[in-house]
Amino acid sequence: MLSPGRKPSCEHFSALAEVLQQETRLLRTEKVNSQTLFSMIHITGFFDAALRQFAISQKTFDFIQCAREESPVSRSFQHHISTFMGLCFKHHIPASMIWDFIASVIIYDNFTPDMHMFNPSDVFRNLYRQSCISGVHDYASFQHLDVELITADVEAHIISMFSHMKYGGQSAATIRQRSLERNLQYWSVLSHTSICLTCLQRNMEHYLECGHAVCDDCLVAFGELIRGQEYRYNLLNCPFCQEEVHFQARLLPPTCRVRFLGIDGGGSRGIVSLKFMEELEKTLDLPYPLQEHFDYGIGTSSGGVAIIGFFAKSWTPKQCLEFFLKFARIIFPPKRGYKYSICAILRRIFASYIADGGYDAVVLEKALKEAFGLGRVFDSANSRPSGMKFAVTATTISDATLCLISNYNGNCPPGSDSSYKHLRAKKTTDEMLLWEAARCTTAAPTFFTPKYLEPYGTLQDGGLAYNNPVRPGLRGVRRIWGDIGCDLVLSIGTGFQQKLLSPVASNVRNLLQDGALARVYRASMQSLSLNGQLSWEDHWHGLDEEEKKRHFRLNLPLVGREPRIDEVDKMQYLRNEIQHHLSDMEGIVPTSGISAGITDPERSLRVMWTFSEADQVPNTASLGSSQPPVFVQ
C-alpha cells in the first residue's frame, strides 16, 4: 500500500502488470483445460443468447445446449441407435467396434466446422447419453451387458477421438471416416431402407450403386460440389463401404423454398395435364429440362403415371404425351358390338362386378412394365441427378386410407404423421418397382382390379381420397423440409365441367333423376375427394393473399360433361381445346408468345424459379456451423 502523499513509481506499476499477466495466464490455462476459451465471435453469440434467456428465465445458462439451439440433436437419434443395434445383433458385430462406431457418430454430429471445442464428456452427458442408454437397452438385455458400462465405453472412445481431432488437426468427418475404415469388413454388410447409417441422425434420402444410402448432410460432408452447377454434388466413393460409385445429386439451396408440382387424376383426360406441361415448356424456353425446375412432384392416377415418367424416367413433356396417347388406347381398347338395351347394360354391370373391373389388368401391367421397366421407386439415380422428390397416391381397399408411394423418407420421427400412410419398404429387396406404383395409383374401381403387393397389402386408385393431390403433397413437403414453405405451387387439372350454381334449391323432384342413387352419385362426384377443381378452389380460398401469389392452377373448362376416364376417342378433342385456352397461362408466364405482359410481376413462374444468395457469409455472432462437417483427405 502506498502511504498518503506518496506518488506511485514505475516499479509499482510494473509489479502490478506482472501480477495481472500471471493471473491472465493462469486464467487462460484454466479455460483451455476446461474447453471454455471462446473466440470473440462465440463470446458475442453466447452473450446475446444469455441476455435473452435472463430476460425471461432464471435457469442457469447452458453453453452446450445454447450452441446446439439452431441444430439440435435429432429427435430420432434414440430410435436410430436402437435400429442400428438390431442390425449389429443380427450380423454378430463385436461390441467394441459398435462403441467405436457410436462414438465417431457423436463426434461427427457435434463438432461441425466453427463449433466450439467443448469438453467431450460434458457434450456426451448433456446431449447424447440418455439417447444412448435408451437406444442400447434392448441389445444390452439380450447380451446381458450393463448399460452404464456401455455408455462409459462410448464416452471413453469419444474422449480419445476428441484428442485426435484437437491435437492431430483432423476434422470430425475425417474421424468418422477413419472409424468406418478400421472395421470396413463389418460395416459393409449393413444396410437399411430408412436411416442414414453414416450419421445415425437423419433418414437416408439417396441410394447409391453399392446398396448403401446417405442423407443430404452426409452427401455434402463426403461429396464434392460440382463447379458451375448450383448445389449439385458428386460422390465418388460410398462413405460407408468405400466402394467406388458414380453418383450426383442436387439439393435445395438454403435460400430457396420448395417448387411444387401436383397433377390430378382423370384417366384418358390426363392428356390435358400433359398438353399443358408441353405448352409450358415451349413457352418458358428454359435452359434445363422442365422437371429440374421442380423440387417435389406428386400425382394421382393418370397424374401419377405422368409424375413417374417425368421425375423417375426423366421424360420430357413431349415424350410423356406420346407415351400416354399410346398407353390410353392400349388399356382402354374399343369395345365392339356394344348393345345399349337395359338388359345388356345390367349384364355388363354384373360381369364387371364379378370380374372386379371392366378392363384387363394384365394388359395394364404389361404396358406399364414395358414403359417403366424394373426400376425401383426409391433407387439410385442413373439417368438424372438424385434429389428430385416425387410421390404417387394410392388408397387401401379396406377403408380408402390415403397412401403415398415415394422416393423419399423425410425426417419426421416415426408415427408423427397419422393422417396418411407413407409406404416404405422394410428391406431393400422389398422396394416397390415403378410399374407397381403406377399400377396401384391407376387401379380405379370398376375399371381395374386393385393390386396386391406382399409387403404393403392391396392398393387401389389414390383418387378415391385425393384426386387433386396438392394437400397430401404439401404435407409431404413438410415431412422432408420442415416448415420452410413453397416458392411455387403449380397444380394441373384434367378438365372440368363449367356449371352455374343454382341460387335456389329445386322443389321439383323426378324419381329417376333425383332418386337416392342419383343423388348419392352426384354428391360423390362433387366431393372434394373426387373433384379436383373443387378441391383446388377450397384450398385456394384458405390461403392468405401473399400465399396466393405463389399458387397457380392450370385446367381446361369444358362446356359439356367431362369425358369418362375410358373415353379415349375424346383425347384429340381435349388436346385441340387446350389450344383455345393457352391464354389461361396469361399472367403467370411473362412472355410475348402468350401475353404482351403480366398483370402482377410477382405472380410469375420465372420469378418463382429464381432465388437470391449472398456473395459471402456475413461475419455475425455464430455459435457453430449449421452445415455438416467437411471431409478432408
From TrEMBL:
UniProt keyword terms in alphabetical order: Hydrolase, Lipid degradation, Lipid metabolism, Metal-binding, Zinc, Zinc-finger
Residue positions of the active site: S301 (nucleophile), D461 (proton acceptor)
Motif, GXSXG: chain positions: 299-303
Residue ranges annotated as motif GXGXXG: 265-270
Gene Ontology CC annotations of this record: membrane
Coiled coil regions, renumbered to chain: none
Annotated ranges, domain PNPLA: 261-474
GO BP terms in the entry: arachidonate metabolic process; glycerolipid metabolic process; lipid catabolic process
MF terms in GO: calcium-independent phospholipase A2 activity; zinc ion binding
Entry protein name: Calcium-independent phospholipase A2
Species per Swiss-Prot/TrEMBL record: Rhynchosporium secalis
